[in-house]
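forwarding from the other thread:

> can someone predict this with adenosine monophosphate?

sure thing
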Amino acid sequence: MKLILLGAPGAGKGTQAEILAQKLGVPSISTGNILRAAVKNGTPVGLLAKSFMDAGALVPDDVTIGVFKERMEDPDCRNGYILDGMPRTLPQARALDENGIEIDCALSIEISDQEIIDRMGGRRFCPECGATYHIVSAPPKEEGVCDRCGKPLEIRRDDEPETVKNRLKVYHAETEPLLGHYAERKKLLTVDNQPTIEATTRVICETLGIK
Ligand code: AMP
């Protein structure tokens, strides 16, 4: 399965990507996680990306495409992948095509801006391993602590309300046109966001025809 997950920031792409990756035995590749790790490690890419990410803006295409291509060379990508947050612009989608990175389909999780704004306030993130939680819909076993590595959870800078509004603006301007790009290629599937993570996973699996 070579799948792209599309949807506004906060639509649940990361959560669904991890669930699907486990089900299908393929890696889930999040450019957001790769870039956050670069920021944390203070690499040249991280230093460049940080100000864009903090402002809720997109990191320049050449930088994102560079780190993404590097990740795609890892052997675990040979049998498939779930792409979470990549591509996010038309030039990135074209870069995938030009670099022979194939996809079976692009699946968009549809959700209103207001729902996104309402739900963002509850998001938590593990700065150590990148795992994501939500205080209502996907809480960790112990409040404020990562299930995987036991580190204290944090609120991402880019989940602050003003940043969320900017990210939605960027999504509509830069990323939404990808729906047309994949529809033209007969690769677009859409699902409506559901009230729970499990229900959304169910409609995604039904739409993709997987158990
Ligand atoms: P995410 O975790 O996918 O919401 O990404 C967090 C932030 O990382 C975004 O708001 C962007 O600043 C940056 N980012 C992640 N993926 C991309 C991408 N494909 N293109 C440009 N910027 C990205």
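The chain has a mean pLDDT of 93. thats all i got for now
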